[in-house]
Write a structure and sequence with these properties.
By secondary structure, this protein is of the alpha+beta class. The protein has 5 helices and 3 strands, in the order H-H-H-E-H-E-H-E.
């Protein structure tokens, strides 16, 4: 690949953002609290482990996911050609239907580290529903 992401775990910015969105919606700690980069056990760890952890905490508190909305900001690769694959994969990992997942890609118009292709930003918001209401 002409480029790759660098991080302590597997650097999956999308799954990290969704994990933090779930934990945030629970008014819980962030991903770094539970999986600190100072812990060697987290080196190269799959981000799906972090997502599974957040989903377990969510379910234990009596919530389900209403929807997930994600915005991936990068110059490359283009998100549109793989949007549906990402939606399906994330939905499968979260145990929801793809029609509950929104994936949007955009560039940063050549501005800052993201615009120079040196970084990727992912924003995610998650609607949690009380299981008694879903």
């Amino acid at each position: 690949a002409p480029f790759s992401l660098v991080g302590h775990s597997d650097a999956d910015v999308l799954l990290h953002a969704v994990t933090d969105a779930i934990l945030g919606a629970l008014a819980d700690y962030d991903i770094g609290h539970y999986f600190p980069p100072s812990d060697a056990a987290n080196k190269d760890r799959p981000s799906r482990d972090f997502l599974s952890f957040a989903l377990e905490r969510m379910r234990a508190r009596g919530y389900t996911i209403g929807n997930i909305d994600c915005n991936i900001i990068c110059e490359a690769p283009r998100i549109a050609p793989v949007r549906e694959d990402i939606r399906s994969s994330l939905a499968s990992l979260a145990g929801i239907n793809p029609d509950q997942v929104s994936i949007k890609g955009r560039s940063n118009e050549k501005v800052d580290a993201v615009g120079r292709g040196e970084a990727v930003v992912c924003q995610a918001s998650v609607l949690l529903l009380s299981e008694s209401r879903s």
